[in-house]
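Supplementary notes for students who missed Thursday's class. We covered one full example, reproduced here. Read the sequence, then the structure, then the short commentary at the end.
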Amino acid sequence: MAKAIMIQGTMSNVGKSFLAAALCRIFTQDGYKAAPFKSQNMALNSYITLDGKEMGRAQVMQAEAAGIEPDVCMNPILLKPTNDTGSQVIVMGKPIGNMNAMEYYKRKREFIPYITEAYNKLAKNNDIIVIEGAGSPAEINLKENDIVNMGLAKMVSAPVILAGDIDRGGVFAQIVGTMELLNEDEKKLVKGIIINKFRGDKEILKPGLDMLTEKCGREVLGVVPYIKCDIDDEDSLSERFGRKDETGVIDIAVIRLNRISNFTDFMALECIDGVTVRYVASVSELGEPDMVIIPGTKNTVGDMLILRENGLEARIKQLAYAGKLIFGICGGFQMLGEKITDISGAETEGEYIGMGLIPMETVFETEKVSVRTEGIINDTDGMLSGMSGKSFYGYEIHMGRSRNTDVIQKGVNNVYGTYIHGIFDSREVTDALIKAIAENKGIDCDSIRAVNMQEYKNRQYDILADNVRNNIDLDAVYRILEKGVD
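Structure (token representation):
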């Protein structure tokens, strides 16, 4: 059976996902078979495995860092928020229904057998399991039925490294306060501390590090700098949305929907020199982009109605009629159609008029489509005719079924949509897209080329691993692994 190590944080967004990914990469580089694990993930960024199961993107990213194929056992419970109080609950890759927060809280312990079975399967086939916690282990109101932090650490006998985020301030209070709120048996599981996202001279921290060791009785294993690497991040507090880069030669605006999902679809566009990807939530932010993308969402109708109310729908239609490229993915694709019908209440019950830019109607059904797919793009005319015959790969996750089944569906000459998430990861598809935008704009785009996403991601994982390796006491981490919870 594999040995385990767990990264927990003093709060959300301290960098647990990245630290876990770094350890996965480091252990793999050192010759071990490593795999990630997170018992319960709450995210709208999800992924479809080879066998058609749905899981959170954070564990997909960590699996990529470890150089292995993502497996739903790495994330047995996934919660996809549908509104402020409820989520679609996905167990071992399949949805079992929508639950409000209280219902799920009462039923959490029912899912423990799935968690232990998934963990044990991974543990039998790997040397090391790198576990990621969620939020904070010191949330007193959630401790009783905890299945993702200390409750899980006890379940699988995993030693814990506690991480704090110094970039937001108050890291010493975060760490000491968290330790103070843990029960004695929980404190015993914490074997070390990492301070994350530091900018500056580490020497000025030494008095604080000594104080932490004294007050917490735990070794500070390292101070990890603020690492600039381009890796998939969780959707809840993504820094991508706040980027204010100068506009590039090609300006792409992604509509920041209220329930935006799978915004990692646009990572392949973000890393192209000369292309700017902006996430916008208002008419004033939208401006005059060369392309507008309406992304996926966990509440298609709800988000479409918000666009209708705040004027973005009208502005998108103006841009479409002015000849700008409009592209919808999944829920954004459905919005571009003429009508959306949701009789069963899968998302928002009722019948709704769409934007009317693509001659298509969508009907929501009770069974979710979740499938990996690849192939050749059908003959496409209009602005994106250059995509015809290009190879693509990606995955579909949707409850709605639309009339047309082409990979790319066209409305007017410059409005398109698809159900394929990750379609821009295909280099030849993205090159065709950039060429079409440039030609429409009347500029030369020979120097603007898509990147090989697999090579790009591997470089980013190496940057992450190198920085963490060089700034923590890795020998101490291996000792913690070897000793376990004793």
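Commentary. DSSP finds 16 helices and 24 strands in the chain. The mean pLDDT is 92. If anything here is unclear, bring it to office hours.
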